[in-house]
Amino acid sequence: VHEAALSEAIVGAVVARAAGRPIRRIRLRIGAAHRVSLEALDEAVHEASAGTPAEGAALEVETVPVSLLCQVCGAASDVEDPWAACPACGAVDVETRGGQELLVESIEVDGG
Ligand SMILES: [Zn+2]
């Protein structure tokens, strides 16, 4: 599953960054183009972090919108649904850009 693979990568990255200190909070930036289910990701991270310094850490996710450029009316819009139609005219002939971010923005550790 998408979220399970992601969570392994996230936990690995934050545990390395924490250098053995217990992690309280994980802040992520995830582009809307990844279409991640935040609920599933939250669950997967909690599972993947069991027995690691990230166990029990709170997960905060900032979704980065995708830019949508309408090929019909030319409107540019930021949307959180990469499959959205043009918000201005409703056309589905749109080009999407960006929303590919996937990074650990910051972590909070105990005593750090
Ligand atoms: Zn349009």
Note down, in words, how this protein is organized.
The chain has 112 residues and is of the alpha+beta class. It is 25% helix and 33% strand. It has a three-stranded mixed sheet with strand order 2-1-6, covered by helices on one side. A three-stranded antiparallel sheet has the order 4-3-5, with no helix packed on it. A hairpin with a 5-residue loop joins strand 3 (66-70) and strand 4 (76-79). Helix 1 (2-18) packs across helix 2. The mean pLDDT is 94. Bound molecules: zinc ion (ZN). Zinc ion (ZN) is lined by residues 70, 72-73, 75, 86, 88-89, 91.
Task: List the keywords.
112 residues, alpha+beta, 3-stranded mixed β-sheet, 3-stranded antiparallel β-sheet, 6 strands, binds zinc ion
